[in-house]
Amino acid sequence: MSWRENKLTRFKSRESKQGRIKFLAIFFIVFSAVIVIKLFYLQVFRGSFYEALAIGQHELYKKLFPERGSIYVVEKNGDKQTLFPLVTNRDMHMLYAVPKSIEKPREVAEKLFELFGLSINIDIEAVEAELFADITDELDPVMASEIKQVRLAKWHEEQKEKEITRLEALLNKPGDPYEPIRHKLTDEQMAAINSWEINGLAFKNETWRFYPEKGMGGHIFGFLGFSDDSRVGKYGLEGYFDKELTGTFGEIRSEKDGLGNLIAIGSSSLKEKVDGYSLALTIDRAIQYKTCAALTQAVEYFKAESGSVIVMNPKTGAIIAMCGAPDFNPDEYNQVEDIEVYNNPAIFKAYEPGSIFKVITMSIALDENKVTPNTTYVDEGGVQIGPYNIKNYNDLVYGRQTMTEVLEKSINTGTIFAMRQVTPKVFTQYVKDFGFGKKTGITLDKESFGDISNLDRPGEIFAATASFGQGITVTPIQMITAVSALANGGKLMKPYIVSQIIKDDGKIETFQPQEVKQVISSKTASTISGMMVSVIEAGHSKGAKIDGYRIAGKTGTAQIASKFGRGYSDDVNTSFISYGPFNDPVYAMIVRIDKPQWGKTGEAVAVPVSTDIAKFILQYYNVPYDNK
Fold this sequence. Notes:
CATH topology of the domain at 285-330 and 343-504 and 515-620: Beta-lactamase
CATH architecture of the domain at 285-330 and 343-504 and 515-620: 3-Layer(aba) Sandwich
CATH class of the domain at 285-330 and 343-504 and 515-620: Alpha Beta
Shape: globular
Subcellular location: Membrane
GO molecular function: penicillin binding
Domain Penicillin-binding protein dimerisation: 66-263
Distance between the termini: 136 Å
Strand content: 15-25%
Number of helices: 19
GO cellular component, one term: plasma membrane
Protein name: Penicillin-binding protein 2
Mean pLDDT: 88
Radius of gyration: 36 Å
Structural class: alpha+beta
CATH superfamily of the domain at 285-330 and 343-504 and 515-620: DD-peptidase/beta-lactamase superfamily
């Protein structure tokens, strides 16, 4: 090979090496750029996703689990409005043990008992009644007191030993790596336990639903309970608005390898959570508290089975107060003796309304121009319809009476007379127009329909008994909604308890009053209202008088249908409906007390509760006198 050829070969070889070097350099530059771009993409654009994977379980929970919305009342202070929480969330702690690390289970159990006490609520009155059942008044008082003290002290020691033994059993499980001990610990309790410096006790953060206002009506709120392994809202607002309050859960999706591990460079996605919406209520906190306290006191005083009160703004349909008794504490919903207590009696418990329904019947006859307040008829003590002889309360006979006197004296035959003037068919249609037999649409879980199906059956007897509130069932929310139309110029309003939905982005959806129907004329509404004022001024409901104000109202005492066949038992439901003042009503109210053990009339049982609450409302609203 000539030197020229050799030189050319060496040149080509050197050129080839330089080409490979350039190629490799370009490859590594491109490869590095790809890595940098990928890292930039992962860290900047996908940073939140991998941050969610990298952080601990608690932070991941916060990333994916939305915060449940709160429930507020709106409080006014001059021109300012503030939201006061009735239902919110509270960060608390769960104590758990690692039993295999616990050295002295008995000592630890004793310390925990000293901090917590008993793990369940004890009805001490029931305990004492059982312990002291054999101690009579014949025993020397000093000796009786000593015996009681000894027995009670012994009972406390027995309960203490049972609880310590229970805790010791949880802590004394060699090899057990995890044993839950107690939920809902406060920061102070956690700090106290940490100060003991005991190996094997640890904490986990938890978020719990918190109901800070006691005695405000658990039926309105409902509670956050469990369905399988999920926590869901049940009953009341928590149940009805569960989806809105819950929000939207976040979600992580990513490709996995054969071992189930996430592939960092695989396709992935992070869907952020959306916190739940909050609710603002129409409830007035002060009136609600007063109403619930008055109802609870009355149910206890008359030893009644249950009761309910609704206070409504008749012009808008807004619920000002709603209470049921017996009530329950949503914070301790699982400690009730009977789950029936979860049902809100104001919207769920249908009953025969009795004589309060007479104002509905009379308003129908007035609206059809078939009677006036001064129209008369002759009462003979009973009305024969086919094989049925319908009589007045206590078999009384009144003789000639006006329609106003029919309401004042609560005469059954008088309302049958009024119904007959319009015919059963027209009467039935009005009853439906007033909203009976269907849900009002109030945004609370578990509302019931009531039952007016008898009115669709052939025969006058069904309309006759319904005219004075028997043979049909209604709910308190239906009844107060209908009566509010009498106070509102004949306009039937849809009841509502939520005034605002506050979304997670701060936007507010406001609920406005909604008119359902002009069910009677404004003239009829004014006339029936005047007749109802006369019921209080001159009739059966004189106990409802409030100095300086004209109040419209009507009592009801309804026998309860027998469980053992046809007819009625000796038990009664007592009711009172009212609104005031007459010239410009600011409230409408229904009070219902079920199965009082004494009193047993609307006048004796329901009226005092209503009057107590009404006086508070009129003073609270600073309503000027209309009859002074």
